[in-house]
Amino acid sequence: MYAFTFERPASAADAAKLAAAGGKVLAGGQTLLASMKLRLASPEQLVDLGGIKDLSGIRKDGNHFVIGAMTRHADVASSAEVRAGIPALADLASHIGDRQVRAMGTMGGSVANNDPSACYPSAVLGLGATVITSKRKIAADDFFQGMFTTALEDGELITAISFPVPKRAAYLKFKQPASRFALIGVFVAQVEGGVRVAVTGGGNGVFRHAGLEAALAKSFTPEAAAAVKIDDGELSSDLHATAAYRANLISVMAQRAVAKANG
Q: How big is the CA angle at 12 (ends 7 and 18), to the nearest 5 degrees?
């Protein structure tokens, strides 16, 4: 490793000041520390959020679950309240990475990083959640802006994410065996405003699929999802899968997710 300073602020306000001054924020460290070991990142200052108690925890607020940014994947997966209110979210969290990753990784870190194959962004977008930061509230549709890119400004920290309770929802992913990231993951949700379908692992970042949403709004069935043609024109091709293969996976995962949501 190389030399860097390490700060552990006691409040989100202090952390935001350090981040605005150029410090690199450390949440669960599941991406950042690995990048530093490989010399893909070389921050001069780390700002550890682990000492800020207000950034962790799960609470019910009316018809929403507000989950602190530093809440670990394992805590979301095991929460009796989340499992009862939004079982799809708890199920998603329970299949992120392996046990060690779930014990250390945080919701806010995953969403802020916006890896194009990460699971949490699909839940945020699929449920139409609101990202709460140290400065404002950002709707999910405005938050994700492409590969590893979000609406967060310099020095702006995610403090919590507010998830509305859907009528029904489910998430299914086809795992890349080595990393356990989603080769394709599909989150389907029937919400107050209709149906939302978010896809991760397909390309430049998480996205909503308008065709699946329209079909499932008319008939929330696997058959309706199967009838939608998935265009592979903007999907990724790499050593793991071709764009055509990913397109087929989107269809299959959507069908299975709808069946799962329907019980």
A: 40
User: What's the rounded Cα separation, in Å, for the pair 161 and 131?
Assistant: 5
The topology (CATH level 3) of 168-261 is Enolase-like; domain 1 (3.30.390)
Burial of 99 (0-12, 13-18, 19+ CB in 10 A): exposed
φ, ψ at 109 (rounded to 5°):
-65, -45
Q: Over 80: is that where the pLDDT of 1 sits? A: no
| Residue 2 · residue 42 · CB < 8 Å | yes
C-alpha–C-alpha distance, residues 250 and 11, integer Å: 41
Tokens of 93: 């969290």
pTM: 0.95
CA dihedral 220, 127, 109, 105 (to 10 degrees): -50
Q: What are the tokens at 34?
A: 């690995």
> What tens digit of pLDDT does each residue of 209-236 get?
999 999 999 999 999 999 999 999 999 9
Give the CATH number of domain 5-164; options: 3.30.470.20, 3.90.1150.10, 3.30.465.10, 2.40.30.10. 3.30.465.10
Q: What token pair was written down for 182? A: 């989603």
